[in-house]
Specification:
This protein has about 80 residues and is α+β, with helices and mostly antiparallel strands. It has helices spanning about 5-10, 15-25, 25-35, 50, and strands at about 15, 55-60, 65-70.
Length: about 80
């Protein structure tokens, strides 16, 4: 993925921290809201609905643990 594509991708996809900031809540609170709406499971991973509905994207860095980004408009 080139630099321009990464910038375009990140305009639409957000971390829980970024989403929380946009809505004036913490990442933890935003994660709880996703659980309340069926988009996260109790263990914090995206639900089947979130995955099949393209609400989230799993990111596997070269080093470190995988994490998820959430589609700003779909969420």
């Amino acid at each position: 993925m080139g630099k321009k594509n990464k910038q375009s991708f990140r305009k639409e996809w957000r971390t829980l921290t970024e989403l929380g900031e946009e809505f004036g809540v913490s990442a933890v609170k935003f994660g709880k809201l996703l659980k309340e709406h069926g988009l996260r499971t109790n263990d914090g991973t995206p639900s089947e609905e979130a995955v099949t509905g393209s609400f989230c994207e799993k990111i596997q860095p070269k080093e470190g643990h995988p994490y998820y980004l959430w589609h700003q408009k779909r969420v």
